[in-house]
Amino acid sequence: VSTALAPMLLLVSLLALWVAIGFLGLLRPTSLRLVAHILFPLGAAVGVAIAATAAFSIGSPAEQWVLVVGLPDLPVHLRRDDLASVFLFLLGAASAGISMFGAGYFRRGEGTLPGLLCLQYHLFLAAMGAVLLADDAYSFMVAWESMALTSYFLVTTQHRIPEIRQAGFLYLLIAHLGAIGILLSFGVMQGGSWQFTFDAMRAADLPPAWGSAAFLLALLGFGAKAGLVPMHVWLPEAHPAAPSPVSALMSGVMLKTAVYGALRVTFDLLDDPLWWWGLVAMALGLFSALYGVVFAAAQTDMKRLLAFSSIENVGLLFTGFGLALIFQSAGMSAPAGLALIAVLYHAVNHAFMKGLLFVGTGAVLHATGQRNLGRLGGLIHRMPWVAWPTLIGALAIAGLPPLNGFVSEWLLLQAFLSAHEVPRLFLNMLLPLGTAVVALAAALAGYVMVKFFGIVFLGRPREAALKDAHDAGWRERAGMLWLAAGCVLLGLLPNQAISLLALVPVQLGILEPGTTFGRWWLLDPVAGRQASYAPLVFLVIVLLCVVATIFFVSRIYRRRVRRGAPWDCGFVRLDSRMQDTAEGFGQPIRHIFEPFFGMRRELPRPTDPAPHYRVEVSDRIWSGVYVPAAALVQRLALSVAQLQQGRISTYLVYSLVTLLVLLAFVL
Amino acid sequence: MSGLSWLIQVIEVLVALLAAPLFSGWIAQCRAVLQNRTPPSIWVPYRNIRKLLIKEAVLAEHASPLFRTAPYIVFGTMICAAAIVPSMGTNLPFSNAADAIALVGLLATARVFMALAAMDVGTAFGSLGARREMMVGFLAEPALLIVIFVASLISQSTALPTIADRLATEAFALYPALAFTAVAFALVLLAENARLPVDNPATHLELTMIHEAMLLEYSARHLALMEWSAALKLFNYACIGMALFVPWGAATTAMPTVPALLVAIPILALKLLVSGAVLATAETAFAKLRVFRVPELLATAFLLAVLGLLVHLLLQG
What we know:
The structure holds 2 protein chains of 2 kinds. By secondary structure, chain A is mainly alpha-helical. Helices cover 68% and strands 4% of the residues of chain A. The longest helix of chain A is centred in the middle third of the chain and has 36 residues, at 333-368. Chain B is mainly α. Chain B contains 11 helices and 1 strand. The two termini of chain B are 38 Å apart. The chains are: A mainly alpha, B mainly alpha. At the A-B interface, helix 16, helix 17, helix 21, strand 3 and helix 22 of A face strand 1, helix 3, helix 4, helix 5 and helix 9 of B.
């Protein structure tokens, strides 16, 4: 018994340890040393332990706990199954690197006191873990709300700045719109039994109409948290506002809890998915992917750029999720399993890649005080320890082999290749078109990453102050290297990862047990199709080619090299302002995808002695949906406010009228 | 059999490596003839590479290590791509390690490194070229991927040699979808290899150039490698096109014997001669497009590829 219970016991105690670490920060809330030197590294170690426990627990039978704590008659149900384990691994492994980075990052103690920050940070981590383990609606919502609130406080760390308070408010608002959706979805799923445990929801037999209502509400709720368009507006505001490790956690891990929720509700709690659920999820996902990446290309703030890139990746995740739903409803178990594995793989990958990129921007921000791409440049010389890991993250997120982003995109494309076999007319023709959008989004991600990395790290410093930029400290380096190593290893050893991930669809009853995905070095996921990928062999051959080239060329030239001024077609008065700006690099995208953007251009007249060119890009969804909605709410509130006259006699008249009406009812 | 297939694999890579400049030289000759100029010697690309290799390299003062390593990475990825693309035989052991999607990823890796290297020195031309190259790339890459998808759907495989093998050995059938994707592929080939309607390989005029703008800061051996990679890329693209649309003649898995290989080599040479001439004709016939109009051309390629996909699904469904 003890061995069977071990993973659950370990996981719960490790989460409790996170809470304890958080409260330890309150012992000496102003001490940066305690927080940075002891508590954050300790939190990182707990993260590693959680990741290891979760990874080893995958494949063991699901365990359930009922803890009699909290309100009477509302015990906390906890359950660990393979789906939860995968996301717990993601949480532990990604947060380990981010916490380690945070240990060095929070050294200045801006805004919130370090001890308080430590409490919020670790409660946030523990709340995410609790979301993954919760097995009844009540404890799920408590964990979900704790996650939202702690992250709200983390976003508003620098609460003295009005824009940051505003961004925090927007985040809180959308998080709660989403929470309402989730709550209502649970309300529908209990199916009249008034039992709010997940077991009761699994057992409930919902008619298709109610099932669809539950799915759509869950999609709304989790989509708001994940940042699906049109509920994405909080992401590009909250991420730049938050300290970088917090942005990394929110983007890398918290968005995945929403993906987890969507998977949990659809594949576990609701039993028979309808085919159009998948279509809705996929359409939203594809649109988000394209929208996110197009906007990312037009950004000039590096953290906003990454936030939009997260919207793109969430879009890809929901695309795969929708595809898996469609396959499952059509009874095609193997492709459904493959699509689900692609989603899980990409979720884990994105936690590492985006975590890495966000902490990289944090290091740049600390070294230079700049978030604006137009004031950066040339940092590869000053900050090599930040630049090279960030390059790995950028190449990975651009989906280039042999790194990890490529593997999950490859799996998704392989799943798409089975889409024409869906036994439903029109759908089988519509779905492959999704491939085109995925391919376009993936290619655009390459554009975005070249822009991001090229403008921040390459070229010459665009500001004189950048010459004094300092490299990251050793804790920050350790955190970045951990995340970069994750990107490389997940890229090179996909079979080892997939053999674990494949147990999730098996446990959910989607995939047959014993499905293989090729030998240990060769990824060969689709039976009967010649399609394989072996990243290790691939890397070895590419490296061999590169090394052989270097060898042969070095035989000929014998190391003669001279440094000189840049050529630039003979132009001599070159300065750093002549490089491409972030706006310039985004120009082709703005030009090609013009209908996506709300754009305001100010062009100079030809006779202008001091010409200025300005272009302002805005989100049409914000001005088209949110501004009218806010205006409507404002109008309704004003008309309700007519009742409030502020005079005692008016209120007495209200009381009198109410009494008379009630009397009329009674009599 | 596996020994022979490894032999074919090695020969293929070597042939690609050595014949790629020849192919570029042939296209330059055809162009010169069509434009009523005296054609340059077909060996000019080799002489160029040799000349550049023995020269002293000059690096910009503030070039980072990325700038120096990029030519080797680009060249290495192009050799690797040559190992995946079937030109003479379709029984390539290495193609198990990387299918056509990985090939597209490989080409994208080369492009990204080239663009990053171009931005590294921090000149106006470099970043301009990088931006334009990435613009061309993000439209051409999905088009290429869809072209490959259609062929994969027809042959139930994403491995390029297997696609070529099945298309070549199955009973001759007309696939209307392939007609659409062939046009799309031709446009992608022109755009990705910096050929005429999109880019002019023979100009150094800043308003028009894309590829050359990225190479401006390179000299000597680094430039030699970049030029050789460009030739290899063109060669690879030509071979991808032949594998997808005229796969006949290569040594297939059904007959991986030495005579088949001996037949395959002259057939490959013939196909390359013809395709080079066609390419030169197309380049002479087209006028250079303004950079503004390039996205329209590539969007056409993308839509044609998607149309090909739809046609295939309609006719199969």
